[in-house]
Amino acid sequence: MSHPIIKLFGAERCHKTKYYKEFLNSQNLNYEFLDVENNEDYANELRELYQNKRLNFPTITIGEKKLRNPSDEDVLKWLKKHESD
Questions:
Q1: Partners of residue 58 on adjacent β-strands
Q2: pLDDT of 9-18, one tens digit each?
Q3: Which of 4, 6, 36, 70 could disulfide-link to 43, CB 3.0 to 4.6 Å?
């Protein structure tokens, strides 16, 4: 079974981004951290996820699902849901 691609859009200086990095690491999840302040391509990718084209971070994507400032429970729920697909 393949696992969904997990991306964390955020910024190194952001305390919420740091929290999500620690959370994802604590769950032993492979994810890609995309620093939207240091890479314009990542910033543009994040802007494309939102109608308002703003840098709404932190945002976590799990496959096609977009989560903005999710609770730990929401992240785990969507991971479980994706595993059962």
A1: none
A2: 999 999 999 9
A3: 36
| Share above pLDDT 90 across residues of the chain, in percent, rounded to a whole number | 85
The per-residue DSSP string of the chain comes to -PPPPEEEEE-TT-HHHHHHHHHHHHTT---EEEETTT-HHHHHHHHHTSTT-----SEEEETTEEEES--HHHHHHHHHHHHH-
Distance CA 80, CA 85 (A): 9
Residue 67 sits at the vertex; the CA angle it makes with 4 and 43, to the nearest 5 degrees, is: 90
CATH class of 6-84: alpha beta
Q: What is the pTM of this model?
A: 0.91
